[in-house]
Design brief:
With 182 residues, this protein is an alpha+beta fold. The chain is 46% helix and 21% strand.
Length: 182
């Protein structure tokens, strides 16, 4: 498939999950893929072309994301709405090969949401055998999820995912309780 790779900066836990899930660090997306539709409006000229056309002296700010993943996008020749220019532009994949910072945040949020959905499905299956849940069982389930996907984790990560799991569970079951009338 002809195309180009865009680089998205992500956090280490998400990178380890995606590498295990995809069996590599390249996401191969087809023409109709959701991730391609998320990326299209935020494609910009590559940094070398931007420097040639729009020289600037400001330095890029540091991000807290240390890992990156590549997304293989098919070669695009189409019209799309550009958020940067606030109008419809002709998008040529030969020149527009960099995703803006805001576009990277949107793709990061989409990938994080996919990981959280997988986590919730895993935890639903892990905790379905127990009538009452305590924090030890939930933490054991989270550790099992992390070890299933070969993710390096800390106690802070476990507590963060435990809070997320309890919020998800409370939201999921909040409308299912019906009072018993005598």
């Amino acid at each position: 498939m002809k195309g180009f790779n865009v680089e998205i900066m992500i956090d280490p836990i998400l990178k380890q999950y995606l590498v295990h899930h995809l069996k590599g660090d390249v996401v191969k997306a087809g023409n109709g893929a959701v991730i391609v539709d998320l990326i299209k409006p935020y494609l910009e000229l590559s940094s070398q072309q931007q420097l040639e056309l729009f020289p600037s002296n400001d330095k890029k700010k540091k991000t807290e994301f240390t890992e990156s993943i590549k997304i293989e996008v098919p070669l695009l020749h189409c019209k799309t709405f550009s958020k940067k220019y606030n109008r419809i532009i002709y998008l040529d994949g030969i020149y527009h090969t960099v995703v803006s910072e805001y576009g990277q945040a949107i793709v990061r949020r989409h990938l994080k949401k996919m990981m959280r959905q997988a986590f919730h499905v895993f935890m639903d299956g892990y905790t379905s055998a127990y009538e009452e849940l305590d924090k030890k069982r939930v933490k054991a389930g989270i550790c099992a999820f992390f070890s299933e996907y070969t993710i390096d984790f800390t106690e802070k990560d476990v507590s963060s995912y435990a809070r997320d799991w309890f919020r998800y569970r409370d939201k999921k079951y909040e409308g299912r309780i019906s009072p018993i009338l005598f």
